[in-house]
Write a structure and sequence with these properties.
CATH architecture: 4-Layer Sandwich
Distance between the termini: 11 Å
CATH class: Alpha Beta
Radius of gyration: 17 Å
Strand order of the largest sheet: 6-5-4-3-2-1-14
Bound molecules: zinc ion
Low-confidence stretches: none
Number of strands: 14
Structural class: alpha/beta
Length: about 250
């Protein structure tokens, strides 16, 4: 499995940093986890749209707003002869305006829309993806991908108390976990994690490596890294465009 970080910050893109999106590939099969603002510029559209299945973790715009760009690219690339099979888009089965907007059948696309929830288990190539619901204002799902190469877990957005990420990430090779706050911040609601909380989850889940994403674009990513490494030394930062080969981790 190869992992490419296409977006790493929230709630808006800045400079070279886009909003959350992770591409996981195994051979010719690709899984896209979220599609935040600006992130599709880091996709190789001619290659990555083929055999692509995208999962949107929840209906907050920092996680889905570039989906319209992805969908229109599927339409144009199909018309140009570069794409012969529809991309698949899995949306949370929460009934809401965003669900209807994103899957609007009148929009030009070359996609198939499907739904998932916490009970779903979906295979794509040799990859198997499972889900767990997080404490967050919208129905929000962390995702785990298992393959012959190992396991990758994506937290999506989550509060700390009652989070399901620790269970989902048990003994995983890589946990890609959100870190929105730094010590000293006044967190009004427990809907996102401090960097040291992400590290605690990684430690309790016994993962091999932790990668932090969803950092605030005005802050230094190294401050998140330093706070987390006090708890979990094997912590790294997601940088847009960065790739990992799971077999070499
Ligand atoms: Zn959110
Ligand atoms: Zn978010």
């Amino acid at each position: 499995m190869e992992i490419k970080f296409c977006g790493s910050v929230s709630p808006y893109p800045k400079g070279i940093d886009s909003c959350p999106s992770i591409l996981v590939s195994s051979g010719d099969f690709k899984i896209l986890l979220d599609c935040g603002a600006g992130s599709t510029r880091n996709l190789d559209m001619l290659r990555d749209l083929r055999n692509l299945v995208a999962f949107i973790s929840h209906y907050h715009p920092d996680h889905y707003s570039d989906l319209t760009s992805l969908l229109y690219s599927s339409y144009t690339n199909h018309n140009l002869g570069y794409l012969n099979e529809r991309i698949k888009i899995y949306l949370p089965d929460e009934k809401c305006l965003e669900h209807d907007y994103l899957s609007d059948p009148t929009r030009e696309n070359y996609a198939e829309f499907l739904e998932y929830n916490a009970l779903s288990s979906i295979a794509h190539g040799d990859m198997q993806i499972t889900f767990a619901k997080n404490p967050h204002p919208r129905d929000t799902y962390g995702m785990r991908i298992d393959s012959k190469d190992g396991s990758v877990v994506y937290s999506a957005d989550t509060g700390f108390k009652g989070n399901s990420v620790e269970r989902l990430a048990k003994d995983a090779d890589i946990l890609i976990c959100e870190a929105s706050y730094l010590r000293g911040f006044n967190r009004k609601n427990d809907t996102h994690l401090f960097a040291h909380e992400a590290a605690l989850i990684a430690k309790h889940a016994n993962v091999s490596d932790l990668y932090l994403f969803h950092t605030y674009p005005e802050l230094d990513k190294n401050d998140y890294l330093n706070e987390a490494r006090e708890v979990f030394p094997q912590t790294h930062i997601c940088e847009d465009g960065m790739k990992l080969d799971l077999r070499r981790v």
